[in-house]
Amino acid sequence: MFILGMEPWKKSEKNGEQGSEIQLPCILKSPKCGGLHSIKWYRGSQRILIFSESAGITRGNNDIAARSTMNYNQNATKTYLKISDLKLEDEGLYKCEATYLAVNRECNNVQHITLNTTVRPKFLRITEEDDNTNLTSGTILGPINEGTLMTLNCESDQGKPVPTVEWYKGDKRLKVVVVKSIHSSI
Question: What InterPro entries is this protein classified in (predicted)?
Answer without folding.
Answer: Ig-like_dom, Ig-like_dom_sf, Ig-like_fold, Ig_sub, Ig_V-set
